[in-house]
Amino acid sequence: MTGDVSVQLRYVVTWREISDGLKIQMRHSPAGRWCYRVLWGLGALLALVTAARLLTSGPDAAFLGLWRFFLIACLLLVAVRWLMALALLAYARHLGEHRVTVDEDGISTVSDRHTNRTDWGFYGRSVEGPRVFVLITPDVWGTGVLILPKRGLGAQQDSERLRSLVTRHLSAA
Question: What pLDDT, on a 0 to 100 scale, did the predictor assign at position 171?
Answer without folding.
Answer: 63
